[in-house]
Amino acid sequence: MRQDKEAPVDTMGCEKCHDETAPDKVMRYQMLVSLMLSSQTKDEVTHAAVKRLCELGLTPENIAAADANKLEKVIYPVSFYKNKVKHLKKTAEVLLEKYEGDIPGTVDELCRLPGVGPKMAYLAMSCAWKKTVGIGVDTHVHRIANRMRWTRTPTKTPEQTRKALEEWLPKDLWAEVNWLLVGFGQTVCKPVGPKCSECLNRLVCPFASAPKEKGSPS
Length: 218
Description:
The chain has helices at 8-12, 24-38, 43-56, 60-65, 68-75, 81-98, 107-111, 118-127, 139-147, 158-168, 174-187, 206-209. Helix 2 (24-38) crosses helix 3 (43-56), helix 2 (24-38) runs antiparallel to helix 8 (118-127) and helix 9 packs across helix 10 (158-168). The model has no long low-confidence stretch (mean pLDDT 93). By secondary structure, the protein is mainly α.
C-alpha cells in the first residue's frame, strides 16, 4: 500500500533534510536539527525551514553565533519556533563544547541535549549514524500501533508503544517501521477522518471493523 501512495515523509523526512555536499559531521547535525524542528510540525514546514537554514550555513558554529531573533524569522512558521530556537542554540553550544561539533553517538547522550526526546534520539541514531538501536515512535506510529492492536494492552505514550513493539517486532524491521507507518498515517490512517474504506488492512484491522460512535474522528 505504501508503494502506491507517496507521503510527505518520503521526500521531506529527516533523511532528506540536509545539504548533501556537506561533510558527514555537518550532515548528521543537520538531520538532528530537522528532527528538533519537526515536533508537532508538518514535514513540508520542517523541510522548508531546514532548507532556509542550510542556505545561511547550518552548522553548530553558525547557529551558536546567530542572533536568536533572526533564527526565529528563518524557521517560522515551525511550531513553537521561539522555544526551538533556544534549544537549537543551547544544543549547538553543547556540541561544540563536548563533541567537537558532531552529534552524540548514543541515545542517552542525545536525550540530554535541549529539546531532544527519545523519538528524536532513536531516529537520529538510525538516520544520522545508521545504527538501529530502537524504534522511533511518533504520534503516527503510536496511533496506528494501537488501532491495529500491535501492543499487548493499549498504550498511553509513545515510549510505552516503543517498548511494546520492540518486544515482538524483529530488530531488522525496526529501522523501517517509522518511515512506513508515518507515511501510512499521513495518507491513509489519519488521526481524523481515516480512509478505512481505501485501506488494504480494513478486513483485519480491529479499528476499521469496530462500530464507530457518533461524533468519533472517523
